[in-house]
Amino acid sequence: MKxxxxxxxxxxxxxxxxxxxxxxxxxxxxxxxxxxxxxEGYGFTEGPAVDAAGNVFFTDxxxxxxxxxxLAGNVGVxxxxxAKTNGLMFGADGRLYGCRNGEKKIVAYKPDGSFDTxxxxxxxxxxxxxSKGTIYFTDPPGQRVWFIDGKGEKRVVAEGFRPNGVIxxxxxxxxxxxxxxxxHLWTFRVEADGSxxxxxxxxxxxxxxxxRDKPGSDGMKVDDEYRLYVATAAGIQMFDPTGRLGGTILxxxxxxxxxxxxxxxxxxxxxxxxxGDKVFRRQVKPISRPYFLxxxx
Length: 297
Hints:
Largest sheet: 4 strands, antiparallel
Oligomer: single chain
CATH architecture: 6 Propeller
Number of helices: 2
Mean pLDDT: 93
Helix content: under 10%
Shape: globular
Structural class: mainly beta
Number of strands: 24
CATH superfamily: TolB, C-terminal domain
Strand content: 35-45%
């Protein structure tokens, strides 16, 4: 079994120094530091994203707004009339890329809130922007994962399941995709041309709360030590680099849906979570930097 795990890790591009480490949830949580309320009174919060300075942005889908949380914790409107933008992520160029699904577009918001359209006539839920500026985004109704290359051309790179959240490993060698109906997370090896191969149910099993038959897995992040965090009905489930569950961080509000998360703050060690009509944060031990900061040369 150990040889099989090692072979899978090397196939997916994992370095040997990170293999078979024991990473319990105690390596993540800070004693005495729990969830703190950042903002409330929204319709439904989603898509948290962090810029190069550590400011966090999130969407209020029903109310068509994107908000910014600055380093002091102040919340202000960044974009009005966001056309129900869902997933967000910053790119190396400083633009905020988003799934402007109300208009069936993938866009890049500029600092003044205006945007450039990158793809049209597509359904989208979540996206991930590589350090090179290419994009993967999920299309749940079409049961597809799309890729937008450096020339702005889009193509389907995976299909046949219901993708939701999407994220890359720190070195961008592996793509992870959630399917809220399945008790696992899918992984794919990223090829040089952006295509995907070696689809595998790598992270499993996901915890499923009593009274439910599906995990409800949604948004994800991976920290600099390859721990993966996924928002689910049970809370934020944390998996170690070998795909083993290391523990679950309970939801800020047990009866509210937990949709997504991001690491923000000046050191990227503050965990933000979108939960129902609110946004919360808590201090944690790991850091999770944007790809363009991790992999810049």
